[in-house]
Amino acid sequence: MRKIYVVGIGPGEYRKMTLEAAEILKDCDVIVGYTVYVDLVKEHFPGKEFLTTPMRREEERCRMAFEEAEKGKTAAMICSGDAGVYGMAGLMMEIGKSYPDIQVEVVPGVTAAIGGAAILGAPLIHDFAVISLSDLLTPWETIERRLRGAAMADFVLCIYNPSSKKRKDHLKKACEIVLEYKSKDTVCGIVSNIGRDGESCQILTLEALKEKETDMFTTVFIGNSQTREIDGKMVTPRGYVYERR
Amino acid sequence: MRKIYVVGIGPGEYRKMTLEAAEILKDCDVIVGYTVYVDLVKEHFPGKEFLTTPMRREEERCRMAFEEAEKGKTAAMICSGDAGVYGMAGLMMEIGKSYPDIQVEVVPGVTAAIGGAAILGAPLIHDFAVISLSDLLTPWETIERRLRGAAMADFVLCIYNPSSKKRKDHLKKACEIVLEYKSKDTVCGIVSNIGRDGESCQILTLEALKEKETDMFTTVFIGNSQTREIDGKMVTPRGYVYERR
């Protein structure tokens, strides 16, 4: 059976891609993706055929990849981070129903939660919830319910899409909800441009996070009740039975 | 400043390691880790010095790595999956307080949630919560509270350590709690031995999952209300505003 690959390229930096992803992109005939992601990998795969569509044209992008596969080419659809976390893996499988002789294979990658956590220290050592604040495809009520459920149960929260040009106040609204359950001194962290030019991070309290302006290239972490700052790093202990050393 | 690396090696298969992780392990002087993980990577780094400790000897293992760094060697502590998700990154930073002239750098990797999701299809496309059922360091009440919070808010759940030799009924108990909030027909998936010999996966209902025997090498996925089975794959749609194509 013919295969089509959906490949997570990691946060951006070439070295943060898996060996498998690099191998598949090297061996395939055509790489399909959102323009920004194609630009991130282009220099590492010289002479390769690239096909791009702009943002929001996801369905078109997926069909483009399947059409290439139909022609007999090995096609790889790339996503930043991991293709399975707010990525194209699901849509590829839905659209794949129309191409029954092509098998979709997902190639995992380092998503922003994992890549960002490594930069901040070790915030996700214990149970955590990943929530996107984008209300393009999800009603805000559902997002709010998720924030409440996660905050109430003392999860560490990792927030994707904390704001965009159109939605400036989503992070503030989210923090206000979380503040109903978590202390204002909760240790939080933000990371911007993970594995790309201008990478930066900051540790701050939940109260300070509420007033923070972020953009689409920022990932936000809100600690649990045990999360601490240790030597400038955000660290969540492994267990709730606090071990003393 | 001298550096010590905490490296996520991914699920097990060498190709699922990042280029960065492979590079660091190739260039370092000594690789420290739990015996099982060292055995997974050993053949790929011939001639390298390896130091191991058995399970549960985590603190000793960390100190061992720092002692090597103190001697002037470049040391890498390896963890399966990602070092920042139920891994050693946090403990390394806590113990690092006693070694102020050594900087801990976390090298991200593909954790079981990401690696397992890729095998099952695309279960984590939307908001998800990661919960460990191990009550070694966490009281069961906290685990139960997390399960309730996540199930109530219709997160996709990804469960680590669903059971062990001593804790045979944890997954059953967890499913019973989740069944208070989610339908018995909720699409679930289990993956065993991700990226290792004997890798296998299965899609089943929440009701069937409750009766399933699992082990420490299994990762469990419980869908949200929108998760579907498409051609034998577990797929969560990207949004809650169901788009029709």
UniProtKB/TrEMBL annotation, chains A, B:
Q: What are the TM regions of this chain, as residue ranges? A: none
Q: What is this protein called?
A: Precorrin-3B C(17)-methyltransferase
Enumerate the GO terms in the molecular function aspect.
Answer: precorrin-3B C17-methyltransferase activity
The pathway where this protein functions is:
Cofactor biosynthesis; adenosylcobalamin biosynthesis
Tell me the enzyme class: transferase
Span of domain Tetrapyrrole methylase: 3-209
User: Could you tell me which species this protein originates from?
Assistant: Candidatus Lachnoclostridium stercoravium
CDD domains per the UniProt record, alphabetical = Precorrin_3B_C17_MT
Q: What are the alphabetically sorted keywords of the record?
A: Cobalamin biosynthesis, Methyltransferase, S-adenosyl-L-methionine, Transferase
Please state the Enzyme Commission number of this protein.
2.1.1.131
Q: Pfam families this protein is in?
A: TP_methylase
